[in-house]
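Researcher: Here's the sequence for the chain we discussed earlier.
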Amino acid sequence: MGVMTSQHVVGYNGMWAPAGEDPRTQNSPVDELDVIREYLTNYRLTLGLKCEGLSPEQLARRSVPPSTMSLLGLVRHMARVEHNWFHRCLQGHGDVPRLFWTAEDNDVDFNEATGDRAVVEDAFTQWRAQIAAADAWLDGRPDLGAVIRAPWNDNVSVRDVLIHMIEEYARHCGHADLIRECIDGRTGQ
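Model: Thanks. This is the structure I predict for it:
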């Protein structure tokens, strides 16, 4: 793989995967929705890449005490975020129960992220299902300027929600970078 230094494994010229093997794209589309979708897809792929090759215990390893953040918790959290914004908000199903959330524990997505293989499989299954459902909805080419009523916000545009999703993934991919480096020293964009 990459070069081992005293503290971490540097990826392929600073990248996570060798040239030609990175699933992320840089097509530089011109259409606004296509640009948004490429960024969103690339960040989703980045989170998945940061989790590859790890055991359930490694995926559930907490970042920095007392934080409950882990790679597995991030996957569960992003399944929850995808579900909340795309299904509950943008598609108007606000009455559907939230994923990985209870009234008693708003952080169940992180707090219950344990190194059990079934918990890991469920998290990735839920996350991938939410991404597929969101992408299917986006295939309908929604009006980015449309204003919707979200259960927690009176008025929000489709564009604002999609940009928020990019921001949410970008922030958490930064967390994933640091958590992965702590687990096995691997770095890379």
